[in-house]
Amino acid sequence: MSQITPMMRQYLEIKADYPDAVLFFRLGDFYEMFLDDAVKASRILDITLTSRNKNSDGADVPLCGIPYHSAGPYITKLIEAGEKVAICEQVEDPKSAKGIVRREVVKVITPGLVVDGSSLSPKDNNYLLSIHNDDGNRWGLSYLDLSTGEFRLTELDSLDAVVAEIACVGPREILLPSFFRDNGKMKELARATAGLVVTHVEDWVYDHEYCRRLLAGHFAGASPSSLGCDGLVSGLYAVGAVLHYLQETQKGKAAHVTSIKAYTNAEHLLLDEATRRNLELTATLAEGKRKGSLLGLMDRTTTAMGGRKIKQWINYPLVTNRGITDRQDAVEALLQDAGSRAEIAALLNGVYDLERLNGRISLASAGAKDLVAMKDSLARIPAIKEVLVAFSSNLLAGLNEGLNPLPELIELIERGIVENPPFVLREGGIIADGYNAELDELRAISREGKGFIARLEAQEKKRTGISSLKIRYNKVFGYYIEVTRTNLDSIPADYIRKQTLANAERYITPELKEYEDKVLGAEDRIRDLEFSLFQEIREAAAGHGNLIARTADCLATVDVLVSLAELAHENNYCRPKVDDGTNLAIVDGRHPVIEALNQGERFVPNDTLLDNDENQIIVITGPNMAGKSTFMRQVALIVLMAHMGSFVPATEARIGMVDRIFTRVGASDNLARGQSTFMVEMMEAANILRNATPKSLVILDEIGRGTSTFDGVSIAWAVAEYLHDNGEHAAKTLFATHYHELTELSVTRRRIKNFNIAVKEWNEQIIFLRKIVPGGASHSYGIQVARLAGLPLEVIERAKEILVNLEKGEYAEEGIPRIAREKKATVPTSQLSLFQNTEDLLRKRLLSIDVATLTPLEALNLLDELKRMA
């Protein structure tokens, strides 16, 4: 636009610096949006789009706006739509401004940097995650929750590990270097970043010296070594990008981000993306909801901090005996003392989200109600400490020591802030009476203006002896003392003439002038002074940020331990023995979530024994719906819970330390990436075979079902052999299958054992007994399960006829299977064998073999096939 107003010129200049954000441009009591921002925002926010001054071409300039004091819900809606919002405020008083009021962007709100409590899920973190890779094998990851101050850093050695970590962290926004676009990294990360807000950071930010300066600047001169980041080059770049982005968007230092925690994969039991999804750790597969997941069952916490902490424990189970034992000791102590457990839970129930309150205070976005919530929460800590002091558990004692009620901060807030302050800071009514003498006087003037004038008038009449003396007010002269001309001889020396009238003179005194200055601007001065005093209190609270953060973390941990003790009490869990051995022995294990759902039948517990000597691979057969998947998942969940330090759903459990849990479960595809169900299945299996170790636990729920029968059996057989024979990857494995041929592996492989889910047949019906028993199943009972599912009777009967034809290998004279020609009703005899056939087919098969090209594995499979055809 060639002809634009100074205000629009200012808008366009500021907007040019924030092209990817919706600019909230402050005009008086409104945030205005113009041009493309207005069109976009009006659609997302469902507000009226209008227009104002036309540009040089005569076209309208789109415009929409919202009241500044109620911007919160609108910002939330834009953030949820994946937009960024730049807040542009008036940074000088319009009354004193010469020309256009100066405006600046004071902060940028992005999906990964939300701090407003109404925009956040209380029990979920809101992470901004940064990724860096310099074309080497090391990937640096760093993530920050600005609302709580949690800041973490790690380095990983593969893209698969990066994808798994992204799935675990669950960020709202990801920072990537701009050069990722050119070198193909974006394509590699496409699956992990799908649906997330991705922000590309300029390449110059990834300079080693610049990142070191950012780190030192934020953490008071600390070096990468002192922060535990020494040697993490790619990780340092990831951290630098976060700090740079924080600096650019928040326009100030986030003082509550006081430390960064570097960690490695070796510190935790590893769970890849497929395992988290298949075990439904934090969300259900079907609906993606917390309810029905392991987290939904285990989270009995009463605080938002505790809710986030227990989710973190599920995502990052421990692999150190000391850490696990300390947690178990604490849970056991709380389990044995129901009274203290209930008392702590009741006290925690009144504790607000100290982590996020601390974050908002540090970022100067906290209101008066936040400070009162902080005070009320801290006030509960002495009572919590009094209960905890009775426990001898190392962990509980350490947590008690870390709790600091900060009495001086409680006293400051209690003395300075009213008990029930308003939401809006600029409207006054925040600071308590008696906190500040000037404010008390201003309030007295505001409340008692007429009384003050009356008292002053009486005082002056008495002092001068002029009974007709009047104190009056008008808009031109303000307050004045009016004396008739007949009394001019009695005027005191401190009276200052202000105006002469025909019959009177008007005067002011220093006292009246002082009062006038106060009373005329009393309301404005009250609001300004209250806000200033509030800021002082808020800054004082921010000075306690480190202690508040430590206290909040201790309270969250106490909350989780109480929650785990309550869970164990309600569900009769046992304390598992976790050691460095190789055995995994569970007596009467149950699936924690399914047991709690209480679906109308008593949950049948089952024993489990896995080791690396005799029972490394358990092949489990049995019909669908019998409980194979439930059994295998419950073993994995019990192992994970034990590594969390939780008690587990069993009568007894001994868990040898596990380094990773892998699952290959069910059928799924990824059509967006051109991957079929079978391709996804094979990719997941490949990941397991590459990364499993003898300390891993592998859950295989069907392998090879997505391709032809012969191919499927061959792949499943070879996978089982590989896990058995390859010492480097010989993981403890539960292998459920409908390929009954796999039960023959136990004949040639010493550490493979067969088990099946027991069923009972009655009147052509099957009854699921839900019990795992030794041996392989003799039937798949597919047709019986189909009957239970409600297939039409005609289909069931025809299926039985076809099954008999296939089992007996019945063919017509011309070699066409009888099932393609006619129905042949007979009585079923035995389970279908995939390799039965006629002598002619056996002969044809032998003639088709090229012995010279057979590999050992193919020869073994072929011999087994021919044996069955004979």
Automatic annotation (TrEMBL):
One function term, GO molecular function aspect: damaged DNA binding
Record GO cellular component, one term: cytosol
Keyword DNA repair: yes
Residues that hold ATP according to the record: 622-629
Keyword DNA repair recorded: yes
DNA mismatch repair proteins mutS family domain location: 696-712
GO terms, biological process: mismatch repair
Record-linked Pfam families: MutS_I (PF01624), MutS_II (PF05188), MutS_III (PF05192), MutS_IV (PF05190), MutS_V (PF00488)
Cited InterPro entries: DNA_mismatch_repair_MutS, DNA_mismatch_repair_MutS-lik_N, DNA_mismatch_repair_MutS/MSH, DNA_mismatch_repair_MutS_C, DNA_mismatch_repair_MutS_clamp, DNA_mismatch_repair_MutS_core, DNA_mismatch_repair_MutS_N, DNA_mismatch_repair_MutS_sf
Keywords: ATP-binding, DNA damage, DNA repair, DNA-binding, Nucleotide-binding
Family: Belongs to the DNA mismatch repair MutS family.
The protein's role, per its UniProt record: This protein is involved in the repair of mismatches in DNA. It is possible that it carries out the mismatch recognition step. This protein has a weak ATPase activity.
Protein name: DNA mismatch repair protein MutS
Species: Geotalea daltonii (strain DSM 22248 / JCM 15807 / FRC-32) (Geobacter daltonii)
